[in-house]
Amino acid sequence: MKKITILSLDGGGIRGIISCIILRYLEEILQQKDHPNAKLGDYFDMIAGSSTGGILASVLLYPDDNKKAKYSIKKAFELYTEKGEDIFTVSLWENLFNPFGLFSEKISQDNLERQLSDFFGDLELKDFIKPSLITSYDIENRKAKLFNTINAKQSQQNFLVKDICRATSAAPTYFSPAQIRSSYGQNFSLIDGGMFANNPALCAYAEARKIPFADLFENREKPNYPTVNDMMIVSLGTGAEMKSYRINKYKNAGKLAWIEPIIDILLSANAETVDYQLNQMFMTLGKRNRQNYYRINPSLKTASPEMDNVKKKNIEALIQAGLCYVEENNELLNQIAEKLIKNKI
Prior knowledge:
single chain; alpha/beta; about 45% helix; about 10% strand; globular
């Protein structure tokens, strides 16, 4: 029985460039070892993403005319390097009347919405080539809103992909909440899925447990309703940045002083907790199967941890951080590629 292969992509704004660099190398290995036109979307049975990871997942799951992956990861990389500045740049006029995003969202959503509309057009969630899980949070009903392809096909929970990407990337203080509508006419007010699942790998595991993959793919080499023993999970972060907060500075700090560290700690701690939980789950398996969980989260090196820093110097630093990881871990990435080839149907 072949494993269910799952790719999980963290949030992180422009830091998604690091994910693109690592995935590009992985895709190139697949092209060398399996097929010259190999695309990552055809090798993973399910792709999950939060925030910028949700946009990456949507690019990888975009269908061509034969219901295969249309785009390689290079297309996503081009989007970040060519369009990132348009999306994240704040004009001098906006800075004057809204310094540091104190009075309203830091960045206008107009450019983001235009770029998403230009790229995804009228593509619908139900048309993705594989099962997906893209996260967001419903601020009016106070609960997680998870977008998945299975629900889109079987119920009234179908959406335009451009709306899903807008919702999953609506990071508070950066972009305003997204107001979107399902194909059935139901309205939702949503913010960035990274608020509760910046690392969506555990959400992806839970979703995969409910999916009859063998029936869906019409192939008995894959299991229905897989357990952890039946899965291979690759969880990809957007760069580890462990900023230290000194006790003397925060011993008697008020609410305003805690805003920045709380957001930073919540996002990183969330990802670390998910990694711990999945590690413990896979450690209960036999020696061979416990090696089917991979958490990849490179050091940022000299790159900025800010999600909206699109200066050319920082873009280059993010690229170099990704390339440095690839150079130091090419054996690991080759191992992942070989397993993807082995478990492909």
